[in-house]
């Protein structure tokens, strides 16, 4: 059996156990799919920081849409549909040019199945929960970067902090969220 098939079989099993209420299985699924997403995005998003940000956006999207996963179906189309939509949204929001995104690979974003629309209120609830563990400065910076779609430079200008300080605060905030919610990604 190929490594890819083994990974997706494991994802299927972990999602089934997670639906039965096993939180450890859900965490394992997220860790496993994180590696898959990094591999998926590597040839598509050239900038490593943008790629990691996008992995986090996709993981949040998967979490928000977890109720839309149909257990009788293979998880790959579901995961990649969310990854595709999140990637396209991410690129549009940031108006990223060719230096980050290779448009000649656009067909690689094709998804065999559509994903149901995510519920905005559920998404806001999850974001509020995740942001609640941060101090005000971390919350403000993450909100500007991740929700408002501002660049590091724009946040730097708005807050008066250096760009490198913005990156450090963002990194620490994400690490704090991961640690608090046991997302050992």
UniProtKB/TrEMBL annotation:
The keyword Membrane does not apply. GO terms for molecular function: DNA binding; sigma factor activity. Keywords: DNA-binding, Sigma factor, Transcription, Transcription regulation. One of its GO terms (biological process) is DNA-templated transcription initiation. Gene3D superfamilies: 1.10.1740.10, Winged helix-like DNA-binding domain superfamily/Winged helix DNA-binding domain. The keyword Transcription applies. InterPro entries: RNA_pol_sigma-70-like, RNA_pol_sigma-70_dom, RNA_pol_sigma70_r2, RNA_pol_sigma70_r4, RNA_pol_sigma_r2, RNA_pol_sigma_r3/r4-like, WH-like_DNA-bd_sf. Coiled coil: none annotated. CDD domains: Sigma70_r4. Residues 26-95, 130-179 form the RNA polymerase sigma-70 region domain. Belongs to the sigma-70 factor family. ECF subfamily. This is RNA polymerase subunit sigma-70.
